[in-house]
User: What shape does this take?
Amino acid sequence: MAKIAIMGFGTVGSGVLEVCRRNAGSIARRAGEPVEVKYILDVRDFSASPDAALFVQDIGVILSDPEVKVVVETIGGTKFAYPFVRQCLESGRSVCTSNKEMVATYGAELLALAKAHDAAFLFEASVGGGTPIITPMHQCLAANTISEITGIVNGTTNFMLTKMKREGMDFAQALKLAQELGYAETKDPGDDVDGRDACRKIAILASLACGHHIYPQNVPARGIRQVGVADVRAADALGCAIKLIAWCRLDGKGGVTAGVEPMMVPFTNQLANVDDVFNAVQMTGDMLGDVVFYGKGAGKLPTASAVVADVVDALKNGAAIHDSLFWKPAAPLAGMMENDRPAPYYIRVKRVATTMLHPITGPGREIFFENGEAGYLIEAATAAQIAQIAEKIETMGGEVCVNLRLLAE
Amino acid sequence: MAKIAIMGFGTVGSGVLEVCRRNAGSIARRAGEPVEVKYILDVRDFSASPDAALFVQDIGVILSDPEVKVVVETIGGTKFAYPFVRQCLESGRSVCTSNKEMVATYGAELLALAKAHDAAFLFEASVGGGTPIITPMHQCLAANTISEITGIVNGTTNFMLTKMKREGMDFAQALKLAQELGYAETKDPGDDVDGRDACRKIAILASLACGHHIYPQNVPARGIRQVGVADVRAADALGCAIKLIAWCRLDGKGGVTAGVEPMMVPFTNQLANVDDVFNAVQMTGDMLGDVVFYGKGAGKLPTASAVVADVVDALKNGAAIHDSLFWKPAAPLAGMMENDRPAPYYIRVKRVATTMLHPITGPGREIFFENGEAGYLIEAATAAQIAQIAEKIETMGGEVCVNLRLLAE
Assistant: This one.
């Protein structure tokens, strides 16, 4: 009988308990022994819960019980999660977490700490919810050098963009619906709609791909607030869907670029057909070519089932996993990563005639003109050039309302 | 330094050597030590090869070298592969293989043999080529009960169906092109076009999902020979693409049904957009919902990279993998599995008026009528009923040229 503890009994944490109980038989078969939740750490009062006996408020109880070999962290954030996870790893206990903020911020340090104490630090659920991404990436693609990762890793914004496309909603309507359905935070939906959540996830995947820590604060990230109904229609006219894309590119010489931005994705690209709350991550390996992992990116039981799979892995293999699931510490960069590769860009402008754009943007063409706004496709520009173009248009009294890079097919 | 041996220096076997050399650095990082190919077993003469020194013709050389811990089997078939793999496992060496015929036929036995000798028997490359399917299935979905698997697992037929759809080729033209491009065997393309290859793969996935051996000879399998240009057009009119689908369904009480058949796949289903030589496998877990794994289903380097990933795994984790990658021996069934679930069926008939069909098929409607043939959609029937319908039509002097079940969205 393997005993585990859960820290943080919120959505995912309570899901972990539920998954452990509902699939106890098959989990036992895979782990080689039954898995039982012995403690649940949570500061709130659960004395009325049928599982009241499991709850503790002091991590010392967990740390002083030699029976507990694996600890699940589902507190979220870093304030409590980070020191607690450190303590668990330092005590030689393996930790399985769904906490992308903690992994994106302290991943290298916690991986090294785990290694030093012969424990495992696993976080499959931090990217893609229940969809297997990190494990196949470091394990099945072990014989590949990964050159590119492109993905839809935020279910909330993908749900909103799908509603905007299919039902003609605008950003505010789609956000309201996402909040009503519990997909977006009611108080501050910024983590999702401004791309911070996606940024943490791509930072984790980029770190794993390149082998050293990539910090979210060095990854330029923007969300979908600027995307309007006119842009969604223009995308359709261009044979594209607008998706919030998290991407990273490795040059094979240690150089890494990454970003999060809404992009025009051609229908011929697999990612264009990924709708609703689904996530999909495409990876390019030098031996393998492209693979795509697709599934629900969030949700209580899907995410919890990924955490429990990590628990099974930690119980079976312990620290042996670490040779492949590992990246080195690195200092943050001084500034932002820059994407200097030119690509076609769609812009929506107002208070400027499209006939005036050509001298500023180079070759391009108008996609639509309505309500004093124009959609315009620039044949090729870098992100820096797009910023310069926006400045120039501003000096002319105009405005670039949104810019969307075209993803290659 | 870890030493390995390769048995069978064909396409995949030579790819394994190439992958080990080209990505030596990253493989060493993941395995925790460099990986070197010490022997290559092949009966053919490679004395002119730059690697001539590695070749041996006697498996005894490998079995008597204690340095060799992991053996790659890429001979194919079962005549030599099976006894050689048995010998390797009996000697306590782990085996990594891409040989779907051997795994589908002897999987349970070889897994038990590996377990008994504290070795690993790994076969990620046997399904989906380089695309990670088996590892995420048994590892990342460890906390799920899998209820359904639906996939495109044969790249050759998917390439042919794509050509038939996009370029209006008929079966013979598409087959000829697939043969010219090396996707289909020239002598006997039957393994691919008659569904035997897909049948072995779904038998492997079904065995892993249900926990006991499912034999290919119990899985009804048919290929795409009957699919004509008219059917491809009818599919389009119905909002579908024709795909060779390998599927299995578990009832949660130990019951398993599986099959391989060309099906009408609605465009709204992820699998409808999987074209060319790509493979995709969709799995439904009780906690997770649907996940899809997508990538190239074949090819020298992709497949070899999956074999090498297994080698890394075997070196790191050895027999520990086996608690989850395992199924029990079972006797073959006396007859074929039967799919008794009703579904809409498309049939193409000749020498019978569609007005005559209604009393035989129950509710349905004509899709097209041309050149004396009619496409007809039956609202609901079981596979057995479709066989009865075909018999009745025959007694009327007509003929059912093809029947295609409609996959649910």
